[in-house]
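In the design runs reported in the main text, the only information available to the sequence generator was the tokenized backbone. The following block is the verbatim input for one such run; it is reproduced so that readers can re-run the procedure and compare outputs position by position.
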């Protein structure tokens, strides 16, 4: 009996301590999480959602979107991109020949094939990324060597990994991204694409509404279920209502009827547009592309 009790006690302590650790560890790490700032700027991160988007988060939850979609971008590491920004008066062929003449440099030996391949069919469009490498020194040497009057090349820190290659975001998700999420819905299954950055990828609210009403109308062959009950099909007045969906043939209701998004559909679309995990942070850095676009 005595051993029975000590076995129970030992098991209780071992399981109890690990459970406590599982709850207490994250609590200690994250309960004090606060707004941070975007890297090299004064902008606060993340931004509080609008009221409509905050309501939309609950619509997202209620409709089980997280069963098929994640909101977490993964990353394997970093690479350095060497990008040609200006070409001065040179022609693309001149630049290509010039870069080829640098291939005798022993430092560039390991990357000559990659550079040659990226410049092979280049027509002169700028900015042109002509090397992505994990080696800081090679990248630095290359920029130094191609910089002649009129020609400007830049180094850019980029995040790499399969999710980033799919265009799901410019960097991995960080804890700060979820600060205003209640509840946090990172999801665990990807029947559809990751949505952490969908507000940047598909910023048109009408596209979002059309997609929710009839996914196939905007993405041919889509297997996403249609969320028709978030819309109301009603008799059209003399003039169509401004908020009525503009649907392609084959998806539009019978003549004389129109599809109106309910408040829930609008809130959900506002929430989707608020998903924009695209700012560089201290814990997830990258160099943004300065072209006016994020
Ligand atoms: C049964 C699985 C499933 C469910 C549930 C689901 N989706 Fe999807 N979703 C998909 C698939 C598959 C795609 C890819 C095809 C497409 O774009 O339509 C997709 C695509 C999307 C896209 C476009 C993504 C992109 O990168 O272009 C958005 C936005 C989206 N879903 C939002 C939602 C929302 C909001 C909900 C909940 C109301 C939801 N989905 C529920 C499977 C699902």
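Verbatim output:
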């Amino acid at each position: 009996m005595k051993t029975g009790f000590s076995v129970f006690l030992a098991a209780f302590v071992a399981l109890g301590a690990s459970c406590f650790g599982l709850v207490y560890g994250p609590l200690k790490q994250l309960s004090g999480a606060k707004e941070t700032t975007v890297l090299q700027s004064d902008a606060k991160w993340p931004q509080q959602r609008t009221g409509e988007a905050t309501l939309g988060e609950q619509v997202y939850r209620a409709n089980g979107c997280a069963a098929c979609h994640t909101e977490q971008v993964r990353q394997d590491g970093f690479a350095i991109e060497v990008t040609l920004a200006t070409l001065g008066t040179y022609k693309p062929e001149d630049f290509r020949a010039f870069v080829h003449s640098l291939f005798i440099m022993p430092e560039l030996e390991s990357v000559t094939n990659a550079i040659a391949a990226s410049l092979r069919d280049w027509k002169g469009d700028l900015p042109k990324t002509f090397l992505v490498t994990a080696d800081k020194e090679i990248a630095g040497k290359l920029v130094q060597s191609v910089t002649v009057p009129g020609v400007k090349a830049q180094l850019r820190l980029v995040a790499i990994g399969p999710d980033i290659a799919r265009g799901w975001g410019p960097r991995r998700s960080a804890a700060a991204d979820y600060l205003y999420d209640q509840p946090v819905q990172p999801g665990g299954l990807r029947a559809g694409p990751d949505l952490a950055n969908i507000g940047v990828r598909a910023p048109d609210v009408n596209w979002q509404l059309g997609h929710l009403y009839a996914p196939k109308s905007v993405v041919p062959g889509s297997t996403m279920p249609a969320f028709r009950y978030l819309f109301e099909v009603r008799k059209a007045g003399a003039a169509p209502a401004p908020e009525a969906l503009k649907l392609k043939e084959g998806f539009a209701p019978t003549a004389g009827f129109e599809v109106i998004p309910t408040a829930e559909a609008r809130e959900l679309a506002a929430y989707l547009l608020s998903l924009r995990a695209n700012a560089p942070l201290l814990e997830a850095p990258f160099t943004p592309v300065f072209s006016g676009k994020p």
